[in-house]
Amino acid sequence: MIQGSESYLVSLLGPATAGAVVSLAIVLMIVLLARSALGHRRQLLTIREQEDALTLQRKAADIHAMVKIVGGDGRILYVNDNLIQTTGYSVEELHGRPAGEVFLDEDPHVATEMWETLRRGDVWAGDNKLHRRRGPAIWVKITAVPKMDRNGTLEKVITIYTDITDAKLRQQEGPLRAMFDRLQDEVYIFSVDDLRLHYLNKRARSNLGWDRVNYRSHYLAETSGGFDETKFRERVVPLLAGEVEAVIYESSLHGRPVEINLQLDESVVGEARFVAVVRDISQRKQVEQARADFVATVTHELRAPMTSIKGAMKLVASGATGPIPDKPSQMIDLALRNVDRLLLLINDLLDLEKLDNAQTEIRRDPVDLAELIDDAIAHNMGYAQEYGVSFAALPGIPTSLQIVGDRDRLMQVLTNLMSNAAKFSEAGGVVEVGLEDRGDEARITVSDHGIGIPEDAQSRLFERFVQAETTEHKKRKGTGLGLSIVKSIVERHGGRVDFFSTPGVGTTFVVDLPKASEEMSRAA
Amino acid sequence: MSELPKILHVEDDPDIREIALMALEVVGGLDVDQCASGADALERAPGIAPGLLLLDVMMPGMSGDETLTALRKMPQFADTPAIFMTAKAQLSEVDRLKQLGALDVITKPFDPMTLADQILKIWQSR
Asked: What ipTM is given for this predicted complex?
């Protein structure tokens, strides 16, 4: 071709000029060839650099994020180590499976939109939950980059996931946590499975001295020296079973008495977590102690002189100090009756004070109610004689019926109800005591055939110092505290007390007691 | 009542001491010696040589339980039966006192006409 060109140039330009042009063309070709060779070398270098850069980028992406490659059909071709570690699946389990089936919450609209975008050759980005083989899902930011083949068909998709669970939690729980940080109570949020800490409010961090500690890598047991996980797991059984909304108990933390309110919560990724609100009750305990001390002091200070007054009068009345004329003897009997009344009032007031105080012990022992009724009948026989009535157990009652409770307190319930019934019965009347097994509960009834309770007094009967105002009732005055005490004791046992009364016909008091209430049996 | 040994009654309230003395000696016919404090009891007990201790619980200085603990350290009173008298009728208090080795606890106010009988019953149920 060059030869042909030269002939053409010679014919066109003449031999000398044509020679010069050819020489120039050769020089130009050499220059062009040289430049071409040089350019090729430069291009080779750039590719290598690009490869290095890609390797680095891939390495960085591998460390920072989870990476997955799927084919155009959505089946998994490749997953990086980070994704394997985070999700807990093995490579074998994942290879060839549709990615949506394994990892993601497939909202059909989102999935359709994503695949449409990718098939157009465009990048798709969004947030979704990434499921793991075990444990709760995590929130991820997703960037899916399509690779198209020469025909413009989707060949592969490279997907990069970034864990944004923390950010999601901050975004969704942020306002709540800001509120927690302003609380005087300590707040702990931790996993149900392994008790790993998710959140401590400011007060908890400060009390633990953990202001600069990344608590998320710590566990609940590390927050308290004497933490007993077995006991904790026992406590939360009813909470996890959905039987109760909260478990509240007293314990000790940082050397102080605390009340712990434990509830279940679900995080934004659906993980069940415990939320514990811990309240310092040192002050409340001090007040309760002061109250208990006061009751003890009053008990002693009131009872000591009463011992002397009653003792002295009884000795005089008995003639142990020498004979006394009739009139002074009557006056001493009158004084003694009122001393007894005063003592009864002191005892009732102190009983109520003790029952009102949550700290007052209520025993949780096995108590046979059938046996208790027999004992109560024998114990109160003197009272029955005083009013000319008799006590009798209803025929056919169970010979044994066991519950968990405080025997002495339950005896007090029976005594108060039976003495009331005796007091308001006509002479010669019978007060009947019944017992019935009602499955989970035991029912005690105390019935009299006396004057009954006027309707206008019935609604306030369990209030303190409330007594029926009829002349008949005034004649049989008590302290007006007996039924309040009955109610308090029964309620402290997790039971109920009620009554049915018809004026002129009689009254029946009904006490229902759980055989073993949850609270009682747990502590028993 | 003769089966009861000599009783040492420790009580800080002079009025209650007098009532108790009447109740035990005059009504019950018992042999009783009295002390007004725990310290007094520790000093005089070896001379009195009681076979039964009747101790008030709440006393200034040395309480009834402290007095019993101190008496127990004397060989001659290491096993002497003891009964407490208290105005604090809480169950926990009664349990605590029984755990100290007391036969029983009598709550105040006691009935002077039946106090000696009450003590005899406790003595017999040992």
From this structure: 0.79
